[in-house]
Amino acid sequence: METQQLSSDMKDFFGSEVFKDFENKVVKEAVSAANETARKELNLFKFEMLYPNIVSEKEREEVEREVIEFRDEKWKKALEEAGGDEQKALELI
């Protein structure tokens, strides 16, 4: 008897306008997030395809070296500010 009541209550809840509105909102947000992620991935793909064709290998290597140096400097500074605690340093970056 209790199981039947619970089952009936669940059907009433899942069939309610409140639940349907909530479900629609969640689905719309999920679809929107998925679309945004797909758009970002596509833009990244386009960039990765174009970049080597418009920037010389020498320039790419120089930029890569500069990025590595920049990251190393930021890491050292964060590690220093965190008193050597790597976990805290990660949070500072």
Give an overview of the whole structure.
With 93 residues, the protein is mainly α. It has 2 domains: 1-54; 55-93. The protein is built from 4 helices and no strands. It has helices at 2-15, 17-54, 57-81, 86-92. The chain is elongated and about 70 Å long. The protein starts with a helix and ends with a helix. The mean pLDDT is 91.
Topology, pairings included?
Elements lengths: L1 H14 L1 H38 L2 H25 L4 H7 L1
- Strand and helix order: HHHH
Mean pLDDT reading: 91
Give the biggest sheet: none
- Spatial separation of the terminal alpha carbons: 58 Å
Beta-sheet strand percentage?
under 5%
Total domain modules? 2
Number of strands: 0
Helix and strand composition category: mainly alpha
* Poorly predicted sequence stretches spanning 5 or more consecutive residues: none
List key phrases describing it.
single chain; 93 residues; mainly alpha; 2 domains
Offer a quick outline of the entry.
With about 90 residues, the chain is an all-alpha fold. The chain has four helices and no strands.
